[in-house]
From TrEMBL:
A Pfam family annotated for this UniProt entry: SurA_N_3
Protein name: SurA N-terminal domain-containing protein
This protein's record includes keyword Signal: yes
Residues spanning the membrane: none
Organism: Actinokineospora soli
Alphabetized UniProt keyword annotations: Signal
Secretion signal span: 1-34
Matches recorded under SUPFAM superfamilies: Triger factor/SurA peptide-binding domain-like
Domain of life from the UniProt record: Bacteria
Family matches, as InterPro entries: Trigger_fact/SurA_dom_sf
Length: 331
């Protein structure tokens, strides 16, 4: 009897939370009922709502998110996947990238077989629940196609991509430093460096002279330090840009850099060509230019598009990076 009562309470709470999350998204960025607009195509709130409800129905662990009032994580996870699908599609059309239909079908079958329900005992992290729930509600064929397209994009670029960057690494000043102050310092430094190329050089030289973790004309290649680094913001950013980003959520470090050169025909990097994980990580990052080309507008009720994470952040203050063209900032 107690189990039944708890279940009913859980369902009642879930209904309330889903209602709050979805009703908060009732207005779109450019038109009514738009959760996002990508390349002029509207992703509706109704579509996001449908998938969130379906995820809760078919993935038991999603109830954990409901109990913790974290269904907003799921709604942003769903929206991220829908936006990425449009970006992959736009990139593939523009660049003539295709994948074999039989290979797509095989991978789709593997996806169907692999998506087993997660434990509901609270041991699974929220982000893992979100990813699992999103994968379970999306069309397996669509997921497979998008993944293989991104893999192919990464495979083509990884061996000969090289980015030259001047950078400064910012670390916490001490245990008493306020939360978020490092982000503010990084963004402020990026804006000062973005005034001009000359100003960026002057600031960097000052940082080097002061003994900061800084260097000039460092060449970065995807896969040189493992597959994880292949997804960094610098690989998708054009030349003459200033970036500020947090490479890892697990470490309180921000990097501010100036992209001096971006070569797609560099000397081949054998490690990048041989490791498929590098291509799989790099592929989504290479969709970054499509954000500016086609346009991505997120309803403020969901948050903002986080260019560094290639996902949806709750607010600009919680995004994991920024990109500024050199000369765009005021002195």
């Amino acid at each position: 009897m107690t189990t039944v009562i708890r279940r009913r309470r859980g369902l009642a709470l879930l209904s309330v939370v889903v209602g709050l999350v979805l009703s908060a998204c009732s207005s779109g960025p450019g038109q009514v009922n738009a959760a996002a607009i990508v390349g002029g195509k509207t992703i509706t709130v109704d579509r996001v709502q449908e998938l969130v409800r379906k995820a809760v129905d078919i993935e038991p662990a999603a109830q954990v998110l409901a109990d913790q009032r974290k269904l907003d994580l799921l709604s942003r996870g769903v929206l991220k996947q829908l936006v990425l699908h449009e970006l992959v599609d736009a990139y593939a059309r523009e660049n003539g990238v295709t994948v074999d239909g039989a290979e797509v079908d095989r991978l789709a079958g593997q996806i169907r077989e692999s998506l087993q329900p997660l434990p509901t005992d609270g041991t699974v992290p929220a982000d893992a629940i979100v990813q699992q729930a999103v994968n379970r509600v999306m069309d397996p064929v669509e997921l497979a196609r998008d993944y293989l397209l991104q893999l192919k994009i990464g495979e083509a670029a990884a061996p000969t991509l090289a980015v030259t960057m001047d950078y400064v690494a910012l670390t916490p000043g001490g245990p008493d430093e306020p939360t978020g102050s490092l982000r503010g310092k990084a963004e402020d430094l990026a804006r000062r460096m973005a005034v001009s190329s000359e100003e960026a050089t002057r600031i960097l030289e000052e940082e080097i002279a002061a003994g900061s973790q800084a260097d000039r004309a460092v060449v970065f290649s995807p896969g040189a330090n493992g597959s994880q680094d292949a997804g960094m913001l610098l690989y998708g950013t054009p030349e003459n840009s200033v970036i500020a980003f947090q490479p890892s959520a697990e470490q309180a470090v921000w990097v501010v850099g100036v992209i001096r050169e971006r070569k797609t025909d560099a000397q081949p990097n054998p490690s990048a060509a041989q490791d498929p994980r590098v291509a799989a990580t790099l592929g989504p990052r290479l969709l970054q230019p499509m954000v500016d080309k086609v346009g991505v507008e997120i309803s403020p009720r969901y948050g903002v598009w986080d260019i560094a994470a290639m996902g949806v952040a709750p607010s600009a203050a919680e995004a994991t990076g920024i990109v500024l063209p050199l000369g765009a900032a005021k002195p």
